[in-house]
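User: Run a structure prediction on this.
Assistant: Running it now.
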Amino acid sequence: MNSAVIYNSLRFILLLAAQITIFNNMNLFGFVTPFPYILFIMLFPVNGNKYGLLVASFFLGIIMDLFLNSGGVHASSCLILAYFRPSIFKFSFGLSYEYQTVKINDSLSPERFSFILLSVVIHHFTLFILEIFAFDYILSIISRTLLSTLFTLLISIIIIYLIKPNKR
């Protein structure tokens, strides 16, 4: 096994453990919960195995569903995010994505911020639509998506800067 597989496996386990033990217990206003475990999908290498990412995303989501007893909404949301990830990359980074010169954990630029924001919005909107599953509650879906996106975005950016490798 090469170091990238070990590093991604360690990231998978640590983000999942942090989500289950710490972030699932944070609950602002009774309905705003951060989901920074999706950083695994966002930080997966650009030139990594795309089918491996889909499989890992499914397992990431299904493990979350097992711990939260949520019936597959996290697995579905993670799969949708992993599927649309190349499109989000292309939208956010343009030509530099084509040449695979993108690193998410560099300094925060407008391109990186838009990538993280779009990824979080897509995941959360899918998650809350599947969780509530009634268009009568569209205002609740939108408000939960916006507030949870802000909370997740803040925590995700902090985590990215904490795990950012030092440049010496």
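Residues 109 and 123 are 21 Å apart (CA to CA).
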